[in-house]
Structures are given as C-alpha cells and as structure tokens.
Amino acid sequence: VPSTPPPSAHLPRLNMPAPAMKRSSGAVEKAGSEGAGRPCNDLCNAFWAMRRFLFCFVVAQVFETSSQDPLTAFLYTTVRCPEPTPTPAGDCPVGARFVAGACTPQPRNSPEWSMSPLCADRRRVVGEVAHLKGYLMAMCYAGNLGAAVLLGPWIDSWGRKPMLLMSLAFQVVFCSLIIVAGAPGSASLAFDVLLSAAFLAHGGAIALLAPTSHAIVADFSRDDERLRGDGYAALGTTLNVGLFLAFGGMYPLLNARITNYQPMWAIFAGAGVFTIILNSELLHESMPASSAEPRAPETATKRDMCKSAVMDMLRGMRITWASPVLLGFLPLTALATMASTSLIQLLTAYLVNMLMYSSAGASLMMLVVPILGCLSSLLTSSLVRCFGVYALNLVAWASQALGAFVIGCGALVEDRTTTEKLFWWGLCVFAIGWNLAQPAFKTIISLQVEPKQRGSVFALLHWVAAGLQISVGLVWPEVLFDAHAEGWRRGAAFFASAAVTFVCSAVYVPLWWVVLRKRRGLKSRPGGATDDGC
Taking the complete model, does pTM exceed 0.85, yes or no? Predict the structure, then answer.
C-alpha cells in the first residue's frame, strides 16, 4: 500500500491505513493495521479491525441488558392491593375470576394472571409499575447526569478501558442493590430507597458505556466520515446482536412466571464480576497517545478532581456553543432521543395492558428491535455513501415519528386484531428509524469535534438527554399513560412521541440545508465528495 493514497482514493478505506496511523497508538489502530488488505467490504473490515473491542462490547451488552429485561416482571410481583370486590353483576377486574360470590386470583398459568401473587387486579399492577418505572427511570437519568458531569471527561484523560470497566462495575452494584431490596421482610421505605440507589448506579453505567464506545469508534476511524460511518454501523450491529442474545435468553425465565427473583439477581451479579475480569484481560487501550491528557495525580483531593471534571465539561459546552452545527443539532438529538426512549419504556405496559400479552410475550416484542437493527446497521454504510449522513438522520427521525403515530392509531381501534397488526407495523417502522438514527447522529456529532474532546461532547449529549428525561420524560408515564384510559387517551403517549420527533425533523431541515450547505458552501473533498458524504 503506498504511503500516500492516490487522488482517486480520496477517502482511506479500512484496508488502506492513513499515513498518520501508528501501531503504537492503541489497540484499535493496531487491529486496523492487522486487518489491512483483507478481501472484504468496508463493513466487514470495520468488524475485523475492531474485533477485540466488539467482542468485549457484546459481552458487556448481554450482561447489562439481561440484568434489565426481567426487571419489569420482578416489579410486577412486588405490587400489593386489597382483594377486589365483585360488581353487583358478578364482574371482577382482569386478573381475578368470580367464584362463590368473591373475586379470586387467576392461576399463574392463566393468560389473565395479574402477574403479582399479592394483587389480583392486572390493570392496577400494570399502572402502578408503569408509574414506578417512570420515577425509577428519572433516578436512572439523574445517575446518568451525575456520571456524565463527573466521570464523562475522564474518558479523554484516564482512557477508554478504565471507564468501560467502571461502567460494568456500576451494573454489578445495580444487581447487588436489587438483591437487598427484594429480600423477604424488606420494609416499603427501604425497598424504595434501595431501588432508587440501584437505578442511580444503572444510570452511571449507561452514562459511561455509550460515550466510551463512541470514543473508541472515533479513535478507530480518525477523522474520516466514511470510516466513521462503517465503525458506528459495526457497533450498532454488535449492539443489536447483544440485545437479541439477552432478550432471547431471558424468555424461558420469564415464561416460567416465577415469583422469587432473588437467585436470578445473584447470578447476574456473579456474571458481572466475570465480565469485568474478561474485559480487563482482552481489551486494550485505544486512545491515541497524542490525545491523552495528564491523569489526576494520586495525591489530588476529590474536590480537585471534581473541579477538573466540571471544567472539562464546561470546555465541552463552550465547544458546542462555538459550533453552529452542534449548537442546533445536539438539543434536537436529545429531544428526539427523549421522546423515543419514553415510548420504548411504555411498550411493555401497552402490550400487557391493551393486548393482554404475558411478560414473556412482551419481552419477545423487544427482539424485533435488534433484528431490524441488525438489518438497518448493515445498510447504514451503503446509505451514508448514497444519500449522506445528514439525509439519513432526517429519514431516521421521520421513520420514528411515523411508527409512533401508527401505534397510537392502533390504540384507538376497538378491534383487538387490528390493534395488534397496527402495533407490529408501527413498531417495525419505528425500530428501523431508531436503529438508523444511532450511527447517523453519532457520526454527525463526532465529525465536528477534535479527537481529544469527543468523549466530553458525547458525555454532554447524555447530560442534556438526562436533564430532559428527568424534567419532561415523566410526562409520559405520569400524565399520558393510563392503564384504565378509554378513547383517544389510550394512544396519547404515542401521539406525543410522534409529535416531538416530527417537530425535531422539521427544525432539522433548515439546520441541515442552511447551516451545513450554505455556510460551508458545498465545498467538495478531493475526488468529488461533498461535505455530507454524497
């Protein structure tokens, strides 16, 4: 391979390393060199170049998702309520049956089981858990916010590997606190406090895993948009493989309809420790040596370290403020992510409440997202080359809005079969848009930032998204969702998500057209490629 690419190769491919690439600059770059010249397409080259990191990432993703999937079923089993009273006509709520003048609980093998051994009212169980998860997710995003501010900048100073291991450690703490919270005889107040602390830890895990992974991909792809798109497409495919393995593996457990989840959480905690050890042995540091900042001295106080972290975060905010692209795009991305995340959190409650799915059946619904996500991720590389990453992001947001709208329309239909069909059609469209948006917005943001500042900017995105989720996201479970709703109120949460995402798409169009095309003047790269990769 020549040291300087010819003019026709205006963008270096994975099997044509850039001249600045050094084998000593990190494991990712080293892997890229090892993969040079392999007879495979660009996406396959991305998988090969990042094979060690992607293996560690999928193991971490399986652990984190598996420890989250049974959470809703576990919370269902903790709901208590008085024994329901039959109506004068002998009717009982869903989850109970009329026997000898009283409402008795449905057996666990019944499709109408309330999912709680302590409450025979299915709608009440679903409603209480939906509201509780709203507050718990607010605590999760509060933990996300704190970790993004205090620990996010350390991604660019301490390195990628230590922060990835710290993310797994937070998830182990989450499982351990759930074990203590669900112990027999635990008081109601202690249960709530321990659950809140567990979700704070889970928020810390999310805040570190996502931006650290994004920074590793950015290290691998240097400053090339096409390489960046291939890297994020490979990361998205690996993420969806992990989700598929996790949700599929949890189905037998949820289908057993157990009421004691303590042994399961203990197994998850042990698996988390094993995952940390495995990743510490296999994963290498990818941060380029030239981008590394001095580590905090061991003698520094916690106050000094926190002050340094906050200053780094403020620097990231100044960088965002100085960039018209980031200043407009980052809030839109946070809004669209908040609306879509709020919708995803209510899908299980919708299936269990409206379509009478079991917890296991509702969990299988989540398999649709990674399956379509793998297909979308495999197409992302080609779509970026054909239409550009900015156009792809617009299509992704529009698809999310359309999918949410279709699901909301299905909730208004009285016929259950039609409602179910519209739900699955809407979910497929939404899942395609959701998975296309992930590599698109990550590529757009990372291309606007210097290598040593990428971790801080991605952490800032999580900071903004967490603030929106805590302040605005509670509207979905607390106001828009009602397990006993009738008429248009049954689809209100989905219509709201569709409206927010549609508005983000509409505002994004002039941002893309005016800021990115008029301001940058459609300057072409050598070889004819425009700034958006078309």
Answer: no
